Amino acid sequence: MVDFDVVDLGPTDHVSVGETASDFTRPLVTDEGWEDRSFADAAGSPTVLVFTTMAGAFLAEYTLTELWDRGIGVGESTAIDDGATRTESAADSGTLTALADATVLAVSISSPYELAPFLREHDLPYGVFSDPSNAVAESYGVVHDLDGMTGVAEPRPAIFVLDGDRTIEYAWVATEWPDFPDYDELEAVLDDR
Amino acid sequence: MTTDDAAPITLYRLQGCPYCERVVRVLDELDLEYHSRFVEPLHSRRNAVKRVAGVRTVPVVVDDETGVTMAESANIVSYLERTYGEGET
């Protein structure tokens, strides 16, 4: 890491392991369009819920492409169910089933018009909930007030793993800015279920 | 009622498309529950519509109750009025 102090985001009062993650409805964006969906309806078992930055920031790109590269949530179309055939999944190798079967859903404050091209550009099969008001991040206790952007807040980078009843099994919330998830730990959690 | 995931009617639409709004108006008048699916503005990228309806134009209505998939706002309006309107037989 760098040889100077990075920004400490301070403590947070986020939802934690054992609690039930609250439901919400927002436009769920894929590379082809968007529609109102409830989180409960779109979620699977397990679900990897990723709070990320605006589309365009490198954190969003690096985080979601890393999940994709590791074969997490690539087993099926996670979002708009209209018979779309997604990119051939890494699960076809037969070795990544536990990871591939997870449903990856992200939350960003970007509008659908930014998120759809972002997903298309990086060939990501994931659905991202568009939440310009940042209210979903608020309800999960993971708000990040961006320094230098008055009137704009976005989620603090965070990852939750939820079971089929939306009970939280794993929670990671950034404590520094920038900060990346511990992908190995996330993989281990999914593998051990 | 546009937020019901389980609504039997799905409307493929564009933001600010008057033909789509025409269909929305009729859906509202007939008090029908429907679910909006917003698709790509760029015609050539509207494969989500092409897959269900065979065309890339919007609006397209998919009615799970009747098994009907239909394009063209004028056709959709007359279909909705015929199926769910006053003159229903």
Automatic annotation (TrEMBL), chain A:
Record protein name field: Redoxin domain-containing protein
Pfam families on file: AhpC-TSA (PF00578)
Keyword DNA damage attached: no
Domain Thioredoxin: residue ranges: 15-193
Record bears the keyword Cell membrane: no
Assigned keywords, A-Z: Redox-active center
SUPFAM superfamilies, A to Z: Thioredoxin-like (SSF52833)
Automatic annotation (TrEMBL), chain B:
SUPFAM superfamilies cross-referenced by the UniProt entry: Thioredoxin-like (SSF52833)
Domain GST N-terminal: 7-88
Top-level taxon of origin: Archaea
InterPro entries the UniProt entry points to: GLR_AS, Glutathione_S-Trfase_N, Thioredoxin-like_sf
PANTHER family registered for this protein in UniProt: THIOREDOXIN FAMILY PROTEIN (PTHR45288)
Protein name: Glutaredoxin family protein
Native species: Halovivax cerinus
